[in-house]
Specification:
Layout: H1 7-20, E1 27-28, H2 31-38, H3 42-54, E2 58-61, E3 65-68, E4 73-76, H4 83-89, E5 94-105, H5 108-113, E6 119-129, E7 132-142, H6 158-164, E8 171-180, H7 185-188, E9 195-204, E10 210-219, E11 223-226
Parallel strand pairs: 4-11
Antiparallel strand pairs: 1-3, 2-3, 5-6, 6-7, 7-10, 8-9, 9-10
Helix pairs in contact: 1-3, 2-3
């Protein structure tokens, strides 16, 4: 006969269902309130909450309380999928807050990736899912693509705009690093020391020509990359 499920796991299951029906930013009951509700010790409640906090579904702020957080958006590493299309596929509403849209001289990394000695079309946006800031995305394109600046840069998809111009993003490569929010903290509504996942990618079009160079800085608890692999041996 299987061992009975621990009490804290049963409470965690009920709390997880409650979190799944709540909106991002909703306040969550305190340990003391939950202990009274379930008629258990606070230590049992603390154990039940630990998994939800570890998964990023609850966040505590000293002196303010505990709040619900939306589940992290997950993207398979080997898939070239725009943020807009990824959020739509996940049933979430994508939106952007435009920080920069212009033609300017290419920086050193941008010139190496796209346009040696030339100009680039630069689009910097805060990417949101269900109005929750997920990332600051700094994308640059070849300077000849100034028509991108006429696209809907706040509710539309740049990849869809590229396709309308006859260019199809096909292959890409990314380098993943980690850091902290730093100067992007205010735009993302997080503390400067918040952990970030940083993706630097370059994409080519259907002709093999460099098309896009983007640095996306994701709030780590709001975005994840899924890796499938084989085990050697």
């Amino acid at each position: 006969m299987p061992a009975p499920q621990p009490l804290y796991e049963r409470i965690e299951k009920r709390l997880r269902a409650r979190v799944d029906t709540a909106a991002d930013g909703d306040p969550f009951p305190s340990e003391q309130q939950l202990a009274r509700e379930f008629g258990v010790a606070r230590m049992t409640v603390r154990q039940a909450l630990a998994g939800l906090e570890r998964d990023g579904r609850l966040e505590r702020f000293p002196g303010r309380g505990t709040f619900v957080r939306a589940p992290a958006a997950v993207r398979p590493v080997g898939t070239l999928l725009s943020f807009h299309d990824q959020m739509v596929a996940a049933g979430r509403t994508p939106r952007s807050r435009l920080l920069e849209a212009c033609v300017r001289p290419a920086g050193d990394d941008e010139a190496a990736a796209l346009a040696p000695g030339g100009e680039v079309v630069a689009v910097t946006r805060v990417r949101l899912a269900d109005d929750v800031p997920v990332a600051v995305e700094r994308a640059v394109f070849a300077g000849s693509l100034g028509a991108l600046l006429d696209a809907d840069l706040e509710s539309g998809s740049l990849h869809q705009a590229l396709r309308r111009l006859g260019l199809r993003p096909t292959l890409g490569s990314s380098v993943l690093t980690a850091g902290t929010a730093g100067p992007d903290a205010a735009a993302l509504g997080v503390d400067p020391g918040t952990p970030m996942l940083i993706e630097t990618r370059t994409i080519v079009d259907q002709h093999g020509a460099p098309l896009e160079h983007t640095v996306s800085r994701y709030v780590a608890e709001r975005y994840a990359l899924k890796v499938d692999f084989t085990v050697a041996g």
